[in-house]
Amino acid sequence: MERDTGVLVAELRGSTLLVTLHRPHAANALDDELMVALRRLWESVAAEPSVRCIVLTGAGEAFCAGADARMVAGDRASVGDTAAQELAFVPGPQISVPVVVVVNGVCAGGGLHFVADADICIAAKSARFLDPHVSIGQVSALEPVLLRGRMRRDVLARMVLLGKHEQLGSEAARDAGLVSEVVDDDVALERGLALAALITRNSPEAVRLSRRALRRAEEHALATELDLGWELIRRHRAHPDAAEGPIAFLEKRVPKWTS
């Protein structure tokens, strides 16, 4: 399980697996290579009983800036047929142990999936959260469905509809229910690992089954809505705005939307 693929680093700390998104030059944005590496890692973790908790964070000053604009602007190497297949890069549904997410910087767009998927999510004081999908011509359909049960609906609606023009600082994110704790930047990872250590002091089987009970009802309730959201996203890809948005972002210009 321990690995360093360049875009992803995983190391065992006792019975906790520390996973670091490692594309700091691109604010740890998700591309095909990183998502494949994550899917393969979770497959390995699922088969390894010695891992009792996962801590996930980002390298450098960012947590995850969402989908890489170059990937969005081009042809994806692999696209899931269902929402579950598309979201296989997040650990929660693939494994049976708790996931602690430490948001250490900007968390945007697709990076919010890790927050929504987390069993426990904490944030460094410098962390900020935004959903820029509509600002780059993309549909925000999966993130709001997954976050709806975690945070205040009015705050979520502002993030979705205002796009890049609405950003939440760490304290505002905590007040909205997006994260459970805010800590100083220099101790954020240490705090995440400490929470994981406390989890691993408990009965492994009791933790697994308790986590399963927490997640099961939510997963069943959301499955249909997620597939509908994924269908809307795929349908929108034929619209001119879906290509114009990321191209304009890469060219650092104002997009020319279709009226």
Question: How would you describe this protein?
Answer:
This protein is an alpha/beta fold. The protein has one domain: Alpha-Beta Complex (2-enoyl-CoA Hydratase, Chain A, domain 1). 42% of the residues lie in helices and 17% in strands. It has ten helices and eleven strands. The chain has helices at residues 32-46, 69-73, 83-86, 112-117, 142-147, 153-162, 170-175, 188-199, 204-236, 240-250; strands at 3-4, 8-13, 16-21, 53-58, 62-64, 99-103, 106-108, 120-124, 128-130, 168-169, 181-183. The strands form two sheets. A seven-stranded mixed β-sheet has the order 1-2-3-4-6-8-11, with helices on both faces. The chain has a four-stranded mixed β-sheet with strand order 5-7-9-10.
